Amino acid sequence: MRRDLKPGDIALVVALLLPLLVALPRLGWPGGAGAGVWLGWIGRTTGILGLAMMLLAAAVSIRLPGTDRWFGGLARLWRLHHWLGFLAFILVMAHALALGLAAVPASLDAAVATLFPPLSHGAVWLGWLAWAALVVFLAPTFDFFGQPHYQRWKRLHLVSAVALLLGLWHGLLLAGETALWWLLGIAGLGAIVWRKLVSPRVARYPYRVEAVETLARGVVELVLRPEGRALAHEAGQFVYLSPLDETLTAGRGEEHPYTIASGPDDDFLRIGIKDLGDASHALQAVTPGSRVLIEGPYGEFYGRRFPERDQLWIGGGIGITPFVSGARDIVERGQAEGRVHLFYLANRPDRAYYRDELDEIAERVEGFTFTQHYSRDQGRLTEAFLREHCPDFTEREIYVCGPPAMNAHLRRLLADQGVPRARIHSEVFDFL
After folding, report:
1. Where along the chain do its domains lie?
2. Which DSSP letter does residue 319 get?
3. Apex CA 396: angle with CA 77 and CA 337, to 5°?
4. Rounded distance, CA 205 to CA 226, Å?
5. Residue 305 has what pLDDT?
6. Confidence (pLDDT) at 113
7. What is the DSSP pairing of strand 269-274 with strand 340-346?
8. Could you please report the per-residue DSSP string of 139-180?
């Protein structure tokens, strides 16, 4: 995740702090008061921040194409979403604990009654029900349960809607100021309604599978023809694809993210898919002529380009697809933007998808250079190999896409050569 501050980050901080700032005149400041008063103040403050984080975590999940750029791409936005949800859970726990401890100086019975009052105190029990729903929702993310099933995890987000609704109800009953909570509630719950009910019906582009081209064993490129208005996209972006082929053994109607391999001006939408799971395995044999739904585009892989600086692209495995899109875009435009050097990292030549096409582009287009590296014969990519084929690689704007282990190795290698983190760009959409 990029570390530089984005416009969306500032908006999130403002939206998070506003409810607290509005409530401060009523909350006051404990000053030199005793521990009980301080704990009560902390309990109310963490409750306000925790509920605001819950609602904002939901709001940023709306996934409107284009808005992800405000946060540095959808992958980064999803990490913010996850952290907001996790921190909201921690703050809600601190909220309950601090309020309970604040009543301990009076008596233990008072502390218990604060946390577990008679059922007539409905606002407090709504808070506990919201907390229980949050536990059910977050439990599968704990390492103890292993990696959650992708589609089951997406469906479980409906439980988060219950937690939000109960938490908002709890807050509205206890807050002295409700206008901001109504706004945040509409934003958070509205985002869930959009994602689960509205977006699948109005925000997806219908396409037909024109062809299924085999690139290698377990790797295909889907060639998709628009049924109506075509999706407008930039090189390196990705989409969510939902196949409707009734013969599929898995994944029918499910949405999964895939990188676009076509150039922006291509009449067809081309998507490279590697057999990495049940859904992607089934798509290897999707029926030509069947329908798919496309939602997007998302991401800003090439979002930060500097015309005065040459580019270094390093792709591995199916992570070559954003660079194929970039290379095809160069062909469509007739020239590269500055000099571009693409390194393709693969185990062996037969696992280098698109290599013949990339070789041809390098021969045709001035300023575009293509180098292949095969780990079976040459080991891991080294600084010496990079410097031999691209002597000025440390001075270039660098784009990386591939398996997590490859990305981590390259980041270490480039950092060891003094390449600033701000000049290394990558976008991984694992478990979006």
Report:
1. 7-201, 205-298, 311-426
2. G
3. 85
4. 8
5. 62
6. 93
7. unpaired
8. GGGSGGG-SPPHHHHHHTHHHHHHHHHHHHHHHHHH-S--HH
Q: Could you tell me if 160 and 47 are in contact, meaning their C-beta atoms sit under 8 angstroms apart? A: no
260-313 pLDDT, tens digit per residue, is 999 999 999 999 999 988 899 999 999 999 999 999 999 888 876 666 789 999
CB 361 within 8 A of CB 370: yes
pLDDT value at position 5?
79
DSSP-derived secondary structure for 388-431: HH-TTGGGSEEEEES-HHHHHHHHHHHHHTT--GGGEEE---TT
- What pTM, to 2 d.p., does this model score? 0.85
Query: What 3-state DSSP class applies to 213?
Result: strand
Helix, strand, coil % in the chain, rounded to nearest 5: 55, 15, 30
Q: Which fold has domain 205-298?
A: Elongation Factor Tu (Ef-tu); domain 3 (2.40.30)
For helices 7-27 and 35-59, angle between their N-to-C axes, nearest 10 degrees: 150
Question: 3-state SS of 52-71?
Answer: HHHHHHHHHHHCCCCHHHHH
Fold agreement between 205-298 and 311-426: no
CA-nearest of 367, 385, 368, 366 to 377 is 385
311-426: CATH topology is Rossmann fold (3.40.50)
Tell the burial category of 368 from Cβ atoms under 10 Å away from its Cβ (0-12, 13-18, 19+): buried
Per DSSP bridges, beta strands 205-216 and 219-226 are antiparallel
State whether residue 382 is helix, strand or coil. Answer: coil
Angstrom distance (rounded) from CA 198 to CA 63: 12
Show the low-confidence residues of the chain (pLDDT under 50). Answer: 1-2, 431-432
2 burial type by CB count under 10 A (0-12 exposed, 13-18 middle, 19+ buried): middle
Q: How far are the Cα atoms of 35, 37, 342 from residue 32, in angstroms, in the given order?
A: 9, 9, 63
CB 283 within 8 A of CB 245: no
Give the single-character DSSP code of 342.
Answer: E
Question: Quick one: 27 exposed, middle or buried, by C-beta within 10 A (0-12, 13-18, 19+)?
Answer: middle
CA 176, 80, 241, 243: dihedral to nearest 10 degrees?
-60
Q: Determine the Cα–Cα distance for residues 431 and 149; give it in Å rounded to an integer.
A: 10
Amino acid 309: pLDDT: 85
DSSP string, 283-312: HTTPPTT-EEEEEEEE--TT-S--TTS-EE
Phi, psi at residue 293, to the nearest 5°? Answer: -110, 135
